[in-house]
Amino acid sequence: QKEVEQDPGPLSVPEGAIVSLNCTYSNSAFQYFMWYRQYSRKGPELLMYTYSSGNKEDGRFTAQVDKSSKYISLFIRDSQPSDSATYLCAMAGVGEYGNKLVFGAGTILRVKS
Amino acid sequence: GAVVSQHPSRVICKSGTSVKIECRSLDFQATTMFWYRQFPKQSLMLMATSNEGSKATYEQGVEKDKFLINHASLTLSTLTVTSAHPEDSSFYICSASDEGYTFGSGTRLTVV
Fold it and tell me: What is the pLDDT of residue A96?
């Protein structure tokens, strides 16, 4: 079992749809949670950073963390064709992980106009 | 927000030569930077953790003599791919920790 599970997709939605992206993890040592967007041949761009259970909103993006279920989500409202990219969840923790990031496999999102 | 600048964005070199990639934190100090490698359609693979003023920590399976890392200041880390071969061709990305982890734009290395 991988430390972080993420459905690779691809996920295809029409413009304006609400997109839900999810990751699960197995180790409670993860305390910090991030979502990145990566366009082809570019570095990942940090979208959301959270460290507590609950919701965090930034514009069209909402990050949700449920530590009891070891489950995180990213919601994108009013999706646009420019949102088409690969979305990576990432986690960092304490103990054996130190300050290293552990990534999910990435979900490919396609927003059709 | 935090910005990490990576240079060059693309480089082509001949087999057997060395290539240096620079990673700079522009508006914050980074005692720790990270170097990743990414293969097509795959997630990022951590190569090493670069610590300012000390030796880098390499992940298992990464050749430290081939991938030399220097972190001489709080804003600059460099990765040198020595005696490059075609199998070293890849996308290399650095990151630094501020609020969250910020990534550079990546370097596409092609060894011919």
Answer: 62
Distances (CA, A) of B3 to A77, A96, B48: 26, 28, 20
Looking at residue A13, its amino acid is V
Rounded Cα distance, A90 and A72, in Å: 10
d(CA A2, CA A6): 9
What would the two tokens of residue B77 be?
């880390």
pLDDT for B72: 83
DSSP β-ladder status, B107-111 and B100-103 = unpaired
Chain B residue numbers touching A106 (CB-CB < 8 A): 43
Structure-block tokens of residue A34: 């991030």
Residue A26 has which token pair? 């197995």
- In B43-102, the residues whose Cβ lies within 8 Å of chain A are 43-44, 46, 49, 91, 93, 95, 97, 99-102
**B27 φψ region: left (φ > 0), alpha (ψ -120 to 50), beta (else):** alpha
